[in-house]
Specification:
There is one protein chain. The protein has 278 residues and is of the alpha+beta class. The chain has three domains: 52 residues, Orthogonal Bundle (3-methyladenine DNA Glycosylase II, Chain A, domain 3), CATH 1.10.15; 96 residues, Alpha-Beta Plaits, CATH 3.30.70.20; 71 residues, Alpha-Beta Plaits. Helix content is 36%, strand content 12%. It contains ten helices and eight strands. β6 and β7 form a beta hairpin.
Amino acid sequence: MSTFVMFTCGLSWLEMSIGAIATAGGVVGATGLIIGLLLGIAAKKLAVEVDDRITAVRECLPGSNCGGCGFAGCDACAEAIVKGEAPVTACAGGDAAKIASIMGTEAGEQVKKVAFVKCSGTCDKTKVKYRYQGIPDCRKLALIPGHGEKECIYGCMGYGSCVSACKFDAIHIINGVAVVDKEKCVGCSACTKVCPNHLIELKPYDNKYAVGCSSRDKGKDVKAKCTTGCIGCGICAKQCEFGAVTVENNIAHIDYEKCTGCGKCAEKCPQKIIKLTD
């Protein structure tokens, strides 16, 4: 008799437990369903409409987030273009023609530009006044008295701030000087912004010649520090029939819009500092 009573009581307790569990499960399920419905309604009510053109423009950008356009990344650049806060040509590495088509405008004639390092002071051509031991970054080295290891304070320091800035693997340090691979360079200008000596400029891809020096010292002082620097003699300017070459502050400059690529300036340069960039 006692066994039957115990069995009956145990069965009742089990039925009560199952009932409690079922009730709790039902409450939790109903609560979840209600919350889900409320979240769905809120998502529709509070949804921010995204312009499909932003997505389309973003697909035309390289995705490197290099910052060369002046915006935080490719997403920000695409949004700025669609909002009219940036031109369709804002990204040097983007497909401007396709972006212009998306925006219903004209991209205009685009001249592809690439970076060029205005220094030829490799390890075998320039004198060194000390050996730097520290963080491998030109910007850090520039803070040290003497402005770098090399005697020429205007030249490439060779510690690769530009290499770190480039998202396209287009620039490397070779024999102490930064060298640009023009086939990989997209002209984003990220490297030009980090060089403490402002040695890197953007030049037209098709232009054949550039001056590989930035020293503003006089000829005698240049030769004492670097065997290949520009001495400001002006022979190049005299050879140019198109007024594309001038000498200012003891350094030759080429006006790329006037340059026809004839090569006479490079041919007569005694220091061979005017480089063929093809």
